[in-house]
Amino acid sequence: MKKSLLFIFALISLSSLAQSIWTKGNAVWHYRFFNVGETGYIKVWENGDTTLLGKQCTKLKAERHSFMLTGPNGNYFESVSGYISGIVYTSNDTVFHWDVDHFSVLYDFSATMNDTWYLQTGGSAFGCNDTSICVVQSAATVTIGGENYPELTLSHAPGSNVYLSGKANSRFGSSEGYLLPFPTNCDSSIVEYDQVSFICFEDDSLYYNPNSQSCEMHLGVNEAELNHVSVFPNPSSGKIELLSDIPLRNIQLVNVVGALLKEFDMNLTLTEIDLTELPQGTYYLKIENSNGAHSIKPIQISGR
């Protein structure tokens, strides 16, 4: 009787482990991206099931919402295109992804510091190797939604064609870089791909938005209101004025990789912000007015 109970307990423990990682249904991820002359967000979502090599898998679909400059007045238009998608399945504490014609490990949450795995095999570009290796820099435990989850800090071996970067937790994957293997190049003379950072995740039992950012932005009817926001001078030595027909409620200043540098709350049609302590470079103002319309405007801090 005792042996039977121990056997049942072991089965329950293994079952709990198998269910302790990854998503809980209808998962959606959002990521911010920046590139030369454009910015926006990437949406990834679970898009049905499929069977590959006898494995019950989940299809992940992604689209890229890009906001690009239409001219020197700083206005944007929105375009939508497909993005890096994939097919995944979980087994115990490991998530696998479909790698052309076989499965490779996407995340191994049983890994410890200095462990490695083949993230992708075959295929190379821009001088990279034909295999991509993920490297675990550290392993820890984090609490999200009142539950503890393994969390890895990841990097990649030199010469890898694709990579994962930053922190990834077992509940939903990357909480810094992109969810799926992301392309890179091994030729320093070639401009890098999108600079991607995590915004938020949600499924049937969790909503996670660590920096309380807007998961999505759209250019719609209300966008016309914010096209009339004047930002001057631009380029600037650091002091910038914003003039609007409708009171502005919130302004966030972010850098080219999406990190929040400053935030201003107000209820004014004319305001001045002081950015003189910032180094030269390109930044973005994320503007929200009192009607809830959102817009993104690039600014250039020049020499003083």
What does this structure look like?
The protein has helices at residues 2-19, 223-226, and strands spanning 28-35, 38-52, 55-69, 76-82, 86-91, 94-99, 102-108, 116-121, 131-144, 147-156, 162-163, 166-169, 173-174, 182-183, 195-202, 207-208, 230-232, 239-254, 260-274, 281-289, 294-301. The strands form four sheets. Strands 1, 2, 3, 4, 5, 6, 7, 15 and 16 form a nine-stranded antiparallel sheet that branches. Strands 8-9-10-12-13 form a five-stranded antiparallel sheet, with no helix packed on it. The chain folds into two domains: 22-208, no CATH class; 223-301, Macroglobulin (MG2) domain (Immunoglobulin-like), CATH 2.60.40. By secondary structure, the protein is mainly beta.
**Helical residues, percent:** under 10%
Multimerization status: single chain
Q: How many helices in DSSP terms?
A: 2
The rough form would be described as globular
How would you sum up the major sheet?
Answer: 9 strands, antiparallel
- The total strand number stands at 21
The tally of domains stands at: 2
What are the secondary-structure elements, in order, as H or E? HEEEEEEEEEEEEEEEEHEEEEE
Residue stretches low in confidence (pLDDT < 50, at least 5 long) are: 1-19, 220-226
Percent of sequence in beta strands: over 45%
Gap between N and C termini: 82 Å
Which structural class should the secondary elements be placed in? Answer: mainly beta
Based on CA atoms alone, the radius of gyration comes out at: 22 Å
Give the averaged pLDDT, no decimals: 82
